[in-house]
Amino acid sequence: MRFDGKTAIVTGGSEGIGFAVAEGLASGGARVVLVARREGAAAEAAEKLGPHASYVAGDVAHEETAERAVAHAVEQHGGLDLLVCNAGTLIPGAVTEQPMEQVDRTIAVNLRGTIAFMRQAAPAMGRREGAAAVLVSSATGRQPMAGMGAYGATKAALNYLVPTWAIELAPMRIRVNAVCPGGTYTPALRAATAAVPELEEATIATNLVKRIAAPEEIAGPVLTLLDDTVSGYVTGAIWDVDGGYQRDRGGGS
Questions:
Q1: What is the pTM of this model?
Q2: CA distance linking residue 77 with residue 71, whole number of Å
Q3: What is the pLDDT of residue 206?
Q4: Rounded distance, CA 180 to CA 162, Å?
Q5: Is-contact 217 187, C-beta < 8 A?
Q6: Which residues of 142-152 are buried (b: 16+ CB within 10 A; e: fewer)?
Q7: Coil, strand or helix: which one is 164?
Q8: Residues sharing a CB contact under 8 Å with residue 8, sequence separation 6 or more, in sequence order
């Protein structure tokens, strides 16, 4: 029971990587607050996780969603220990073709939403034993990929913020780390590959294991970074969980 007595918020927690992380936290003894835009999906996911799970419905692009989620954790469970900023949107498009409203939405969800949750959560998490945050970034934030400019740029920004926040929040005893998944079978990827069919083949071709990951394969490293008993000395780190994507493309992990 690595997370016994802990309270966690997981954004984008109703499906995909977020739900896999929430499931691991709940099975490890944590009280889990799911944040998702669609109330029905959030309620269904919380019910699956059991009596120690609850949810807050709202758009992470709006800071009031973060305010409500943190307030819910504090009021219902007496505090907040763990934060997983997983919510994101993946809208592929070339810079000369993608409408600006899609670019704005990508920035609002992936970057602004993460900043909002960190801003709201940090004071509640401060100086609690084993406090930790993990951002779910992306391999495309480390290595460029055609048609993923806006998405990759927001993830590259998160990668910059990880060590920055690790420095800023160290006096509050909050560890901050990230994982950079490669292609993972989530609803977002399935929607993207439906719109751009060649994306799936390209994703498989540019990693060493020649397949796409399951959400649970990304959740494992996230849970490891949250677990203070094994990762208590790790902060400011970015963990590539990408099937060797960067090595295959000539970069370095």
A1: 0.93
A2: 10
A3: 83
A4: 12
A5: no
A6: bbebebbbbbb
A7: helix
A8: 22, 25, 30, 31, 32, 33, 80, 81, 82, 83, 84, 226
Residue that has been written with the tokens 């907040």 in this structure: 80
List, in order, residues 6 or more apart from 51 with CB less than 8 Å away.
none
What integer is the mean pLDDT of 175-179?
98
Q: Where are the beta strands (DSSP E) in 182-252?
A: 238-241
Structural domains present in the chain: 7-184+213-237 (3.40.50.720)
Residues in the chain: 253
Q: Rounded to whole angstroms, how far apart are CA atoms 12 and 137?
A: 13
> CA-CA distance, 99 to 226, in Å (whole number)?
37
Cβ neighbors of 54 (< 8 A, separation 6 or more) are 31, 32, 33, 34, 46, 72, 76
State how beta strands 31-36 and 53-57 pair: parallel
**Tokens linked to 199:** 């994306």
Beta bridge partner(s), residue 176: 133
Is there a catalytic annotation at residue 233?
A: no
Which pLDDT does position 193 carry in this prediction? 79
> What is residue 183's DSSP assignment?
S
Average pLDDT, the chain: 93
* Interior angle at CA 83, CA 92 and CA 15, nearest 5: 50
Say if residue 59 is exposed, middle or buried (CB neighbours under 10 Å; 0-12, 13-18, 19+).
middle
For the CA atoms of 250, 89, 13, 243, what is the dihedral angle to 10 degrees? -10
Separation between Cα atoms, residue 214 and residue 235, nearest integer Å: 25
In this structure, what DSSP letter does residue 187 have?
H
Map tokens 């801003």 to a residue: 119
Element (H, E) at 136: strand 132-136
- Out of 151, 160, 233, 245, which one is annotated catalytic? 151
Report the chain's terminal Cα–Cα distance, integer Å: 31
Residue 11 has pLDDT above 60, yes or no: yes
